[in-house]
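To: structure subgroup
Subject: Chain for Friday's discussion

All,

I'm putting the inputs and outputs inline so they're searchable in the archive.
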Amino acid sequence: MKKKTIKHLFLAFASLLLVVGGVCCKNGEETSDDLDTDVSVMQPAEETKLTVKNADLQLLIGDEEYLNVAYDFARNDTLSFESSNADVLSVDDQGKCTAKRVGTAVVTVKYGEEVATAQISVGIGERIPVLTFDCIKDGKIKVAQLEAFEFTPYVSFNGKKFDADTITYTLSDPTIGRMEGNVFQPEKVGKTTMKAVAQWAGAQSVMLTQTFEVEVSTNVALYINDGSQNEFTLYAIPEFCGNDYVTETAFSVQAFENGEALNAQVEIVAGEDVVEYDATEKVIRSMGKKGVAEILISCTDSQNETYEKSFKVTVLPSIAEYAGATLEFETEIGELPIETIFGENVTLAGAEENGKTLEILDNKVFGVTPVQDEANKSTITVYTESYGYVVPIVAYSRIIRSVADLEEIFRITEIETEMDGTRERVKSATTFGGYYVLAGNIDASGYIHRVTDNTIAENETETSVAYKDGNRVRSKLNKISAESPLEIKGGGLTGTFDGRGYTIFDLTVEDHGLFGLIYGGTVKNVGFSNVTLRGSTYQENKALFAEQSLNGTFKDVYITANTIYGAESLEDVRTDNDARGSRALLAVSAFGKTSVKDSFFTYQIASTTVKYCYSYGLFAYEGSMKNATGSSLVFENVYVVTNSVLISSNLAKIYKTVNSNVLLATNDIKSGATNEEIENRIYEIVGRPNHDNNMPWYSEGDDFEQYNGRTFLSHLCKQASGVYRYATQEEMLEAGHDFSHFSKYWVVLDGYLPCFESTGLEPAREVDGEYLFDTQVGEFTDAQLTSIFGRADVIIQSAKIGTHALTVGENNVINGFPIDKHGDKLSVIFKLQGEALGYKATVIPVTEYLDDIDDIARIFKITQATMSTDSYIESATSFDGYYVLAKDIDASGYTHQVATGAVRDNLKSLSLAGAKAHNGGLKGIFDGNGYTISNLTVGHHGLFGVIYGGTVKNVAFTNVTLKGDTNEENISLLAEQMVNGTLENVYIQANELIGGNGTTNSVQSRGNRSLLVTMAYGRTTMENCIFQYDIEGTQKQYARSYGLIAYESSAKYNTNYPLGSSVSFSNVYVISNAMISSWNPSAVYKNNSTIALGENETNETGLTLAQWREVRRAYVYEQLGGASNTNITETTITGERISRYTGMYRYATAKDMQDANNDYSAFENDYWTVAEGQIPVWKK
């Protein structure tokens, strides 16, 4: 007999414990096969009589149960089982009984000669057997006339399914169909009641009888196309971004009754604006928008019964891949560049991310998951009702573009504190838990960051809610103890502030830092240049980032700070012992596992900080120094340039031997230093504070003179590893550290300290000189390359202006220079291929170099001029760049005409009655670069036509001829009018000014003759200039006006110029036989003439107003020709109309000017030569 596992029974026989054994197991050993049997047997200590312990079992139909038999298996006889009624109960050779139907059976157990019996009853108990048809719903079933239908009934009892012994079916109307076994054979259309009676296992139950309705219907088939589809998907538009989309599909309704076609109907019951049905083409089409439609098809059979089916049609927007660059997205703002993505301003209908539906609110997208650590790319799908794009994004919580974003994002508005023993600590506060990045470098000059809103806004009072709330938060931050860490809920920065290699310049932070608190947050990859830490009062703590850092991380952080001051008001400190604040670069307190890695800091501690602050340093307090649980301030590859120890906690009281702590850098003291060496080293770094006996913490008996190295507490001093401190950058450089761990955002070169690249302060060789760069050509000359790099055969790899990278192409062509029309000098760092160290050169980008007279003729040409109704220039060709002479130019044979044809005619109508802000002409700079233009002839309107805000400088014009085509035309070298212009270091030597043919005494036909401009307006200035010219004969006699400037009134009497006139002169010398400005000289007797004189032309010292007017009148009378000029008399000249220019001097000849012995030291520059006793001479 097969060995099986047995149940364990404990029976008492004659007070003996019987041990469980296994059937046919020898020596009482249990084998692996013994683990499968359920027969219960005994192993007696003496001979056991065959016994069935559960001889009176009562089972339910379907139950299985093993007989519990005790016998002496040591005899090794055969154990057998036999049922008296196998239809009621069956038993196998292992004694397992199976109840099959209602009744009683006797099981006979034999073991050798021994026999035992068990009488077992089988029934249904209180449970009810049920005849079940799964196909019957609501007591009905419907079958097709031409199709036989097979029923699959069963009896459900005690959680099990059984086949019925027999089922008898009876139909109320046997003409409808007949039953063949369990198969119903329809005969005709109609309804009948079917009664099914089951016989099962001898059980009696009303539920073994079921009655239901059978309906035989015609054989109707209703479907679409080939019947394989129940749903359809279309797209809104057929073509998009080069892709084709399905916008229509076949929708042919098929309806049949017993094989005969039926008429069918199609109805769109939902989504009529989404799809349309074309009955002729038998198709459905999308209607250009997304949505869901329901289409109902139906038919009616011969029995007038209607059959229906509905189909779902989903119309999706046509989606294409966005071909543009990956977009940076702010999850907290939700704004997408809609016009950039879609090419127009559209309304979004939906958005998704990885199958997740996003929220659209005010055309913004919300619900996008931001990055948690690094910038991982993702995609979102955004769409209108008709089309959309899969857009690659990098999702950040916020992107910081300006100080306005800093102010908006990092503001603590809620705070809760609790007591930590006797100290107050933060329990929870406003949290910055996202991933925040800089978009680029930020200029924070003029901005003061306050993490709490403690300012009174316009129209607010100190009782306003906003002000009180801000002060409440600030007040609580003020009260928290620097020695009690944040509670577990934390607050402030819990996420990441990632500068992405950019720098914030000139940031001022007040009181509690940029974030207020840091709880597990990270600051990384960011530079702060020229930081200022400012306390609103001397009691406030100061730090760049936070009041407290718990488990904060600072990595790849670069900071240069202005001097960190302590007590701004010494007198306040004198009267207040315990209100002194602390000063720290990073955070006032560092708790938990705060870490600083791969960072570089430069700052200085002011002497008042050392004397009057509680604590100061990189941090002011470090938790582990106060035995805070779990504190571990970690440094790794950190370099500090400062005049202080890393942390000085309450050092002012160190002589009292309590409450003071010092943290030294790795290199501050050698390993194994004695206490005395440590104390002396601290004294060496910090120095002996010059304590003030008037301070409130000074008590009688305190001997400050004994405050020296021996009183420092070495046992309260710690030395940090991984951080190196030096008093100067030179000392750090001499130490010879390996800075190779600084990477990506840093510039690391041998022999130099690490530099955060975006600061634009990376090390480079200093190149002497200044280099003009022609942006039209885009290349330096070979001579320039040789001067900058030492040779011309170089390959420029990169060029950068501060943080602005220029584009360098083949053949060293450089693009991207910002052209400043004022000619500002740019500091550019060039890097050559194969060289790590760059070259820093001063470059002045120019719009164009002027190599010859053809360049002047091409560039300075007004081709368009629109005049207003009152004869002012509304718009005209502008020269708005920076134009530089490349060499001396000989213009012999060339006559410059700034305008021709209709444009020239327009300019002729230019009003001289006053000036407005002309929009045209020279707006930029004409820089002669020290060179000379010689033999130039200039016609009407001058070289530039108009000068509006432009500058002419560093240039000489020699042998100039000014000549109009006709006598009525105005002539001048530079322009018809100059508004807010500048002349600087200009030398002009002109021939006789010629008015053209037909010179007469006619008042109506006379033009103006001026060397520079006809009229000068606004804030025009001239400095370090020498002008040499003569006006002779009829030009002088018959010109309407003449001189350096034809209309002196433009500077002194102009009432039409809206900004006011203040033409000014400094070191301007005129060598001419004509007065500086003589307007309408022949009409001087009519009192409508104006005359301008040089500062040296009359001596008016000590004269009354009437006297100096008389002196000027007599002088002008002589200059205008005196008695030889029959148009005027000495008595008719009006002194009130005669002005004198300060800063301008006129002499009739060069010798007169030389004899004047003026001070020409202002001309001692790159453009003039000044010999002793001589007048300045142009160098080139």
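Points worth raising on Friday:
The chain is about 10% helix and 40% strand.
The mean pLDDT is 81.

D.
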